[in-house]
Amino acid sequence: MNIHEYQGKEILKSFGVRVQEGIVAETPEQAVEAASTLKEQTGTGWWVVKAQIHAGGRGKGGGVKLAKSLEEVQEKAAKIIGMQLVTPQTGPEGKKVNKVLIAQDVYYPGASEHKEFYMSVLLDRATGRNIIMYSPEGGMDIEEVAAKTPDKIFKEEVDPKVGLQAFQARKVAFNFGLEGAAFKEMVKFVSALYKAYEGTDSSLFEINPVLKTSDDKIMAVDAKVNLDDNALYRHPDYAAMRDLAEEDPTEVEAGKSNLNYVKLDGNVGCMVNGAGLAMATMDIIKLAGGEPANFLDVGGTASAKTVEAAFHIILQDPNVKAILINIFGGIVRCDRVAQGVIDAYQNIGDIKVPIIVRLQGTNAEEAKKLIDESGLQVYSAIALQEAADLVTEVLKN
Ligand code: GDP
Ligand code: MN
Q1: What is the pLDDT of residues 302-324, one digit of tens each?
Q2: What are the entry keywords (predicted)?
Q3: Which among 110, 243, 269, 300 is placed 20 to 30 Å from 52, CA to CA?
């Protein structure tokens, strides 16, 4: 699950990571109020107005603006709230901004230069260990740094038996070229960030930039946090941070019915039980000359209710020219699934696309008979190839 920058920063703060202070706002009036409060709390006289969407690259798209007075805060918040923000990560249609974070300006001049670093904590699947990935080239596109100057990206692997060691945190600070107070602050920052990553059961914490201020403080200016869905039951307070407005509405609806649905660009809708079978079915569709319109795993127990919910979701996609239902009857009996398909078909009514049902496993023959005798526009098959051929045939018409 993804969360907003302001929520990520709240979490970081609770683990003792220094962050650029900010207050979230949903209207220009709230933004001005937030800016005043921040002035009292931090003494700042300048602010940054930051669009809160689940995508990075906001600065490049015009979603991060410096404001040098309360009037400018009001002005810039009014401009950003409600805008359709396009960044390199949103796709051309962009994302609607509903909230802004009003943050203290931390790029103020001082005794030394400020510096931007990159740091993330994530699981390295190759070694099965958590790593801290970091680079002195922060603030900008880390993908570009990785492509052009891979020697500027460092990795520190954490042994799960002993956890992050103090010498490792010092190594990070050393590789950043820090000294004195900034060095000490960075050691604390790395340790606290790693604790936050572990303590929240996250799969990613990415801080870009980590800022060294001109008075040698180290802080998180941005926060991209990816919480592990499978661990959310242990963190109801984080689960409550979910922002449905940021997610694909069809995928949200699918989630409510316990369906694993991912929308794709093709023309053949799929309804399958089991993720592996769903992948194989998508391959078969491609081999037969079609393109899958979605990935949809209805789970182990495909009841009439789940089948109906799945139909509703697939049929919302205007590109769908045929639907292939591929169910293996192991725990669930094929005849019950067949009855479910027939019931759902009749309940929804007015289904215009041809449906091909391939049922294999327990009571497959009975299931085929039920479908063939239902009098509906449903083609039945037992063998997968047979089903694929039917898809090719209906796509021709
Ligand atoms: P992203 O573009 O979505 O990654 O958003 P960030 O939170 O990383 O902000 C983008 C950029 O805005 C940063 O790299 C900074 O250059 C700039 N920025 C962020 N906070 C401040 C601030 O307090 N003052 C100034 N002057 N610039 C800031
Ligand atoms: Mn950033």
Answers
A1: 677 888 889 889 998 999 999 99
A2: ATP-binding, Ligase, Magnesium, Metal-binding, Nucleotide-binding, Tricarboxylic acid cycle
A3: 110
